[in-house]
Input
Amino acid sequence: MTREYKTVIKARLARLVSIYKLSLLILRKPFTYLVILATILSVIASGLNTKYENNLVVVRDPTITGDPHTMLIRFSEPVSVEACSTLLSGLSLGGHCTYYYRVILDHPYQLVKSRKLIYVVLGVEEEVLKGLGLEDGLSEFSFGYSEISGESATDSMLVNSKTVKVTLIHVNSSLLANYLIFYKTPIIPVQGYVGTEPVTVPLQHVLISTYDNVMRLANISEPLATDIVVTNLSGFIEPVKVFGFLEERYPVTEVAVTGNGYVIYVSEVRIPTPDSLISAVLSSITASIIIISIFSSTTPYLKELRNKIFLMGFQPWAMTIVMVGYTLTSIMFPGLITLTYVFISMGGASTLNSLVTLTTSWLTSTIYIVLRTKPEKLVTEAYMPPTFRYVLISSVTDVRRLTEFIVKLIKTNEFFMSEEVEWRVEDNEAFIHAKMDYVDSWGSGVDLTIFVSVNGEKSYVNISSAVFGVEEVSESMSRSINALAISKIVGGVTAWEATS
Amino acid sequence: MGSNILMIFVKVVTRGSGLKVSAIVSINLLVILLFRNNALTPYLTMLLSMVASAAIIIIDFRLHSLLLYVLHVYGSRPNTVRILISLYSLLIASILSLPYLAIDLMSFSSALTSTFLIALSTLSLIYKNVRGGTSITF
Output
């Protein structure tokens, strides 16, 4: 790593540290606590006020001829088959219930002879088996399987480290693959979708049998179902109502009803209502007003701070970074922690509402404070000495202290590396000479000659500068280097004088 | 002198941002309460209005300090200043309490008590801040 590169890194790090220290200075002010409190309370209020409804999708399809209506109910885990009778009696409905037990196994069963893994076991009623061409029914431990060559075969199946003798009966693969239990819902569990087409588990991993057989295999004492299809419904019923009824009793994930030319799906996915979003917007307005008002009252302090750091040689964007960093730390950071709490305690829909509040409050507050602390016009605000000579009149009359402080300012200027600094104090006068290399451009810098004299109650600091470069230095570059060198001394002495 | 003091007070109230901020916050809270669907919402918004009242102390701090100086120059007695400042604080606190009064006086009886606590805390906080922030000793 070259020496110049190291110097550049060092100078930039120094700037970063200064910006960090400035941010800390503002963060420690008491009004920050109010900003944090306003943010946290608004985010929670927004989350609490969320109203949500189950996602409802209506699919229109003229090919559906559905009078009487059919209904599909899906559960996230197997439930007792009594769920259907509970529903029909609870909502005073009439209809015929068909139960399905369809599970994808975490630990597959293994057919020993045919060396196949079984991931899906389907338990269905006799009428479904007949529809699949298994009219004769299936005896104990007999399963329909599409991947055998003959009409039937015997095999051993490893079920959770126990071996079970099973009889496999051939089932038509085309019939099984295309059998639908409801509108576009295959009997074989869906793994995913390619476009709108469902992708099901391959048939070589699927066994189908009667309810009793599957319950026996899974060692379940009472009949359970993962899906229920209710046909011949006595009348149309709102799926939202069914979902609400079942939700209180069973882990229902979806309710769908077909009618004349349409299917209505209601799923467990919840989305905030428009009322809820109004509440989120109002919470953000409240938080923004409180925060902006606090910022507004602190603007004079922040402007004063900005002017001071400009005098110390900071760039105009430094204040923007400081303010964005401040709002990130005081609004976004506690807001995100609160958002996590909202997500854990209230769920996704509330989090969405709270996120709207947090983002809006942060954005409005940041835009406001950045615009308020930004210099109106760079040329009028930024300190730019018009000439290469500058005379500073100071009330500090201790010539040695003043000289030592100026030397310190020269040595600590982050835009330059002091190649040479020499100084001498005699009676009421001092002379400083410094050769400083500009860190952002190789081979250029400034040669400073400073004469300090104390006359009565005032001291005079005469600064002369000469910008040099191994290559031709442009006028704007020359002015920048000159300004950076002189403004650090002028600003530093002024600030030191005011604070000492 | 009394009319002058009153005029100064009215100017402070109308020109200060505190009153405007409290009015806007109050309207917002009222709408939030109208759309509420959670029993905790009124209490949470009450905390929010408490934060707002504390923020108003910061917002109008310079104005209050100025008011103290001006009133002192006009020769007001300490008690007059205290009463005026208290009146202003009460006005802010009342505006912040309005949403709760407007929604339902009966069902928010506990909320109402808390609201007046906000009013009282605002009073004392503003007074302490103003006294602490100025060098005038009455």
In short: Chain B is about 85% helix and 0% strand.
